[in-house]
Amino acid sequence: MADNKRDYYEVLGVEKSASADEIKKAYRKKAKQYHPDLNPGNAEAEAKFKEANEAYEVLSDDQKKARYDQFGHAGVDPNYGAGGGGFGGGFGGFGDDIDLGDIFSSFFGGGGGFGGGGRRANPNAPRRGEDLQSTVTISFEEAAKGCKRKVDVNRVDVCPECNGSGAEKGTSPTTCPECHGSGQVMAQQRTPFGVIQTQRACSRCGGKGKIVENPCQKCRGRGRVSKHSTLEVNIPAGIDDRQILNVRGEGNKGINGGPSGDLHVNVNVRPHPFFERDGFNVWCEVHVTYVQAALGDTLLVPTLDGKVKYDIPAGTQPGAVFVLKGKGIQNIHTKVRGNQLVRIIVDVPTKLNAEQREALLKFNETMGGSKPDMDDKKGFFGKKRR
Known about the structure:
alpha+beta
């Protein structure tokens, strides 16, 4: 139940006024803290990791965040208000099909422009359907490798009962006797300059050229209905955060046999707790001990393809960067993969026992270094002047 969920801002530990960057940093911190790879077998950590993912999916999406801020969990719950009362995109919130073209035609006279002096467009001509917008949130790995995701949209479709005619099953629209199917009638007006003829929409058929005497009960004579659809969308490998994926023909259905509009899918990519994207390259940090850096060692380095072995040479310096060829992200256009860049972080021990301290001092002497005065507490600038 949505009522049992924690507040998403509380989950990520940010204020409601937090910026997009602050939300992203907070999520990355939580994801790293509760990531299953760092907490194997920990059911509580796994639950918190999923909770953080859910919170970021909503708060990283401007539209979902706005609905959440206004309505709470109910505003982003896909099951809330099913059947026309929800908060989804498209026309689902209105219950009925709204023809924006007809609305603008009533104000501006169809294709005649704002001045009304042009010729009205043919009402029976094919018209393209409107484009729709949707949003999906995917993981860093899904963006790198590609995936299939289901997208919920509310779109305008042809009425299945009347097949778009607007007439009750078994009947069909008839040609308007007033305009003879043209949708327009001529009007004459006497002026001081003579008689002026103008065209206007036929009042009897509303400019459609046809009359539906027995309207379809499902669509109420409109020929189109609002329909909730679930589509499976192929997200290509290499897609980046905030990119828009265009799915042709999955928008609103056209009118009078016109083509369907497109569906524009806004892709949000959750940040990764270990990896950071740089174009088609991937950065990560690997921590080693002082001994590993000095003597060299074989490391297990995490990559998008799993862990791989990599030999660091003796004398590796802090901040050194090694390149794993072809272990980055696939270029969405050329299909060539980038590289993975591994930055070495040398961990300096913070607590030493007496034996470890003595061993380091002896090592320091063999390197020609002087013995540090560990008892001098006078500060950074040396002994206090007398």
